[in-house]
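Feature request, filed as a ticket because there's no other form

It would be nice if the structure record came with a short human-readable summary line next to the tokens. Right now we just get the raw output. Example of a typical job, pasted below so the devs can see what we mean:
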Amino acid sequence: MRIRWSAILLAVICTILSLAPRGGAQTPQPRRGGTFVVSLDADPPSINPLVNEVLQAMYPANQVYEPLVRYDEKFNPVPALAQSWQISPDNKQVRFNLVRNAKWHDGRPFSSADVKFTFEVFGPRYSAAYKPVFENLEGIDTPDANTVVFRFSKPNGILLSFLGDPTFLVMPKHLYEQGDGRTHPVNLRPVGTGPFKFSEWRRGEFISFARNEEYHQSGLPYLDQVIFRVIPNAASQVA
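Raw output as currently delivered:
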């Protein structure tokens, strides 16, 4: 995929906004509060990177939605919505144990049904990124609300290397299972499980997000607010 490496790097950079530092004893302790302002060179078509695979959509979407795994500074997968996982010896099955206290921003509980819907229905329907990763997918089992099992007909050794990409963020089934994903109103007022909730979008000016006080990772995020300002001119962005 032509945007593969830039998208992975983007995922790492964006999640830094909400995660605690992973360094050693010399790493300064983060301070709670404040606003982080990011410039965008244009308004995104929507805030759904599965429907609009452009960087302007990925930056804000990463604050609202979450993947099953993230990447650390060495690009190793680390827990996100999946708190742990097991890979079968033949590389044909991956079992994800999901976090148990995550909620969508509208209060609905996050569950394995959302993961199954995203990777079996919504993602393959709207994103070209799914075909090379899931072409040998036989099915996704959800034995309970907190467990997801991906079954492949052939060994799949690349799954965890892609799941942290913004095009594999998990979408809410209860909102997207009805209607056209390309024109769905949730694309403009996203509802995720992430560290920040959507606040306001003024076209041509800014998109703002506020801290999710009920975020499933205790104590996070540290910031009060993230604002993406639309500044098309590069010199003005620097200023």
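Something like this underneath would help us a lot:
Residues 1-9, 18-24 have pLDDT under 50 and may be disordered.
The beta strands are 35-40, 69-71, 77-79, 82-87, 93-98, 137-144, 147-152, 196-202, 206-211, 225-230.
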